[in-house]
Amino acid sequence: xxxxxxxxxxxxxxxxxxxxxxxxxxxxxxxxHPLEVKAIADGEAAQxxxxxxxxxxxxxxxxxxxxxxxxxxxxxxxSEPKVRVPESKRRGPRxxxxxxxxxxxxxxxxxxxxxxxxxxxxxxxxxxxTKSTIEQIRERTHWNxxxxxxxxxxxxxLCSQIDLDMEVEKAxxxxxxPTAAELGATLQSAQExxxxxxxxxxxxxxxxxxxxVFRKLSSLRSTPKDEDxxxxx
Length: 233
Known about the structure:
The chain is elongated and about 135 Å long. It has helices spanning 8-18, 23-30, 34-41, 62-70, 104-114, 120-127, 131-138, 153-156, 161-172, 180-183, 190-193, 210-232. The protein is mainly alpha-helical and 233 residues long. Residues 183-208, 214-233 are annotated as: Disordered. This is DUF1013 domain-containing protein. InterPro entries: TrcR. Pfam families: TrcR.
């Protein structure tokens, strides 16, 4: 990894204010144009930026600055860092433990069926597989297709729910909403919508029999009289 100067413009401001280096030397060291360094010295550029001491940050030594001040043609060199930072590895397919690799085809089948919007590259990142394996499972040409059963990759521990949700959200962006036909919804026919018959049936009103009502009233009136006559005897 190539060593780079931290905060070059702030470093240039400090060198202009605290050393006798030429504009060309400062520009070469800070990867700036000499005219930009001159504008910094004149106060026309980088106003409000605080200078950064390269000696305090370990990027330059006092001997290196003194050597450059004594020779206008000398080019400043960065000091060797005391700590080596390893280069970040390029992120590749997700590593899958050996004990769980046999579950990957089932997880791929689950993703293909339940999230058809996912691209092969997204499925590959989630479960750590290859595009050829995904195509075989899509086309049912996988050597073990007959025995595959769709299984949730989150349940299998091949990926986290957060990663799955993020990939689904990415794949869903810009995708048109499903139509009514795709959802299986259809409009009702005019005959069904124009039906006026209620879903319940009204109870038919019963005709009142006047004779039966009077007979019932007369029986109620006669009952108290009979009881009074029995009490007299």
